[in-house]
Every structure is written in C-alpha cells, then in structure tokens.
Amino acid sequence: MPPARRTGESRSLALLPPDWEPTRLALHRFSRVISAVPRAYAVADPRWWHLSLEVRPEGLTTRPVPLPGGGDLRVVLDVIQAEVRVESSPGGTVAISLSSGPTASTVAREVFAVVAELGLRGPHDASRYADENPTSLDPGHATTFWGLLREVDAVLRRRRKMLPGDPGPVQLWPHGFDIAFEWFGSRRVAGEDGEHRAQLNLGWSPTGDAYFYSNPWPLDDRLIGSPLPAGAIWHTDGWTGTMLPQREVAGNADAAERVLDYAAAVFDLARPTLD
Predict the structure, then answer these.
(1) Are 59 and 75 in contact (CB under 8 A)?
(2) Hey, how many other C-beta atoms are within 10 angstroms of the C-beta on 83?
C-alpha cells in the first residue's frame, strides 16, 4: 500500500492554488523530458500511446522500454519527492533531484546519460524537451496537484469502466500536460495517413482555468449548441467542443458525479455520429 502522503490532499476536485502556474510549468517540462526516452527507444504505437505517461502511486511513469541486454526501464517523475528516477530491472534506480530548480535540458542530459549506460545510445530529438529556463517547484502546490490528479484519474477510470467496447487507457499526455482517455465508435473515417475509428475523448487540463473536456472526432457541426448539463458549455474560440470548467463542480460533495453526468450526456449526444 502506498504511503498516506501519496493519497493526495485534494477533496471533491478542489481548485488548484491561483499561483501554481510556475509549478505546473516545471512539471510540464519534466514530463516532456521523461517522455523523450520512450519517444527515442520504445516500440512505436500507431496511436502514440508509447509517448504517454501513467498516473501510478510512485509518480508519472513511462511505459516499459526494452533494453538491448534484456529487461526494461521506466522513467518516473515523482511529484512529491521532486525527483526524476530511472528504474531498470538490471540496473536498479538512479534518482535526479529537481529541488534546486534545474533546467529541463540539464535533467534531460542526466537522464540520457543514465539510459546510455544501460545500452540505449541511439539518436534522440532534443528539441522535444530542450529548455534552458530554471524551474520552480513549490512543494505544497506539487502535493495539492498530485492529490487532485489522482482524484481526476480515479473519476476518468470510473467513467471508462461504464462504457461498452474497449476504450483506450487513461493517460497523461506530455505535449499538453492533460489527462484523458478515448472511446472508439464503429465508424471508419478517412485521414491523410489512412482510416481511423471515430472516437470520443474525456479528459482534464490543469492549465489556466482548469477544465474537463469531452469532444467527438469527427465533430458533427449539427451538435454544436446542443443542451448540456448545468455548468457545461460549448467552447468555440480556438477549438470547438464541450467543456466543464472545474470551478463549476470544485468543492462539492457530488463533484465526481457531476463530471460523470457531463461525460454521459456528451456520450449520448455524440454516439449516433460515431457509430
């Protein structure tokens, strides 16, 4: 059982501190650093799932990356301990502290030096994580975020279990630093790189005014403006879809249920266009 401190500080999807942006930015940068390892060395998944991170008790974690000599490694961003760890079956664990405010580029150089010692020495794209700006991790804000992320992860997993078929995994995407999963319809949609199954996502973004989102792909324009549950809105500035601002449910005893009701309403609305 994980230690009590890892169960989180958030209650009923409570809002993040208004001044937490420097901590969010730092965690976003470091999530890109650890994702760069599977980007360079993991077996590529056509859905890009090899790049995403899992929310595990020990932290944000890459999927296993096979090592040339056998075994595998994971890279972990431990939000509570403020460190990045390379954990491998043959090599044990190497920890890199984030407490002193290192740049993402500095941490990346250390991470890739460790994985090189484990046999992964091929080329990698440094532009994906290169950033020479110092970082700032507030321990209290990091703990609050981690508790909230664990709570959001649990809500998304609850919704995933309610759906028919075989939805994708709940995963955090380092590119946008949002957590989401996808449900797939039976409709096939032609794209530039072949056919894809129509889909509907459900996710949460902690950037700016944090919000839940659920959007079908492709989006039938006739759905835009359809009634949504209380607090949820149609977003049309920059991207088009539905969102539920976290402030609409934060701190309420039924916060999770309201998110689930929102997700169910969008699913019922969008499914006829995806099957």
Answers:
(1) no
(2) 17
Q: What is the mean pLDDT of the chain?
A: 94
pLDDT per residue over 94-129, tens digit each? 999 999 999 999 999 999 999 999 999 988 888 888
What angle (nearest 5°) sits at the alpha carbon of residue 102, between those of residues 96 and 105?
Answer: 90
Judge whether residue 2 has pLDDT over 60.
no
- Quote the pLDDT of residue 72: 96
Does residue 234 contact residue 220 with C-beta atoms inside 8 Å? no
Percent of the chain whose predicted confidence (pLDDT) is above 70: 96
pTM above 0.90, yes or no: yes
Q: How far apart are CA 62 and CA 34, in angstroms?
A: 7
